Each structure stands twice: as structure tokens, then as C-alpha cells.
Amino acid sequence: MNKMIGFIILLLGISWFHAQSQSNVPLMKYEELEKKIQAEENKLLVVNFWSTTCAPCVKELPYFMEVNNTYKNDPKFKMVLVSLDRAIDKDRVLKFMKNKNLTAEVILLDDIKRMNTWIPRFEKDWDGNIPVTVFYKNGEKIHFNDGEMSKEELENTIMKHLN
């Protein structure tokens, strides 16, 4: 009986932890995001820029979640979803995360006024449209995808660069 109670408490704890991991979205400035990218050593880092109001972004997110769920236990892989929604729309982002069961780390980039400064720092040819996905290895950009990605394109890019 005690083992069963312990097991139930463990399951509740795991469920609570999962819910907690999706219950907050940190607000970051570009410089903080840049430091976060640089700090991810020995990993393939997939950084997707999106918004809750962007139809192509919303369309591709299920593919990103499928792929993230495949690789999330690989210590050489990490996915970060960077929302470009406004900071005042944080509650909408949180609700969207819950409704869409976003399993990757989500960050709200609170730096809209300086977009013309930080966009070219990610990619000189990026015109500011989303979705955009940037792939990094050891803090260095290795691939830039402008526009919506299919699940196959995402998987192929990851497999090409993961090892």
C-alpha cells in the first residue's frame, strides 16, 4: 500500500512539474537571448521565432513539438521557441502554450522597439518576417531557414547537424 501511495505521489509530482514548466514565460531582451544561445555548448540548438498571431507559425508548431519530443532526451539537442508577441500579450502566449501543449522552452522576446537592431544580428538577410528558424552548434549559427518548415525539412536539418 505504501508503495502505491508513493507511486501516486511521484506521478502527481511529475504532472505538477510538467504543468509548472509550461506555466511561465520569461521576458528577455535580445542581449539575454544572445547570451543564452552562446551558453549552449556541445548542443544543436534550434531557435524558432514565431508569434501566436502568425498563421504559418501556428501551422508548423505541431511539427516542431513532434520533433522536440523525439529528441528532447538527447543531451546534444535543445529547442527554444522565441515568441515575438508583445509583452502585454504574455497571458495570451501562456494560454496558447497550454492549449497547444508546447513542450519546448518558450521565451517572450521583449525587444520589439529594437527589431531593426537585433534582426540583422541573427541573420543579415532576414527581412523580419516569421516564422524563422536558426540552428546553432556551440553558439555558432550553422543554418538559417526563412519561412515555414515541414516536419521533414526540420528533421533532415537536425539529423544533418546533430552529430
From TrEMBL:
SUPFAM superfamilies the UniProt entry points to: Thioredoxin-like (SSF52833)
Entry-linked PROSITE patterns: THIOREDOXIN_1, THIOREDOXIN_2
Entry keywords, A to Z: Redox-active center, Signal
Pfam families: Thioredoxin
InterPro entries linked to this entry: Thioredoxin-like_sf, Thioredoxin_CS, Thioredoxin_domain, Thioredoxin_ResA/DsbE_sf
Leader sequence segment: 1-19
Domain Thioredoxin: 19-163
Protein name: TlpA disulfide reductase family protein
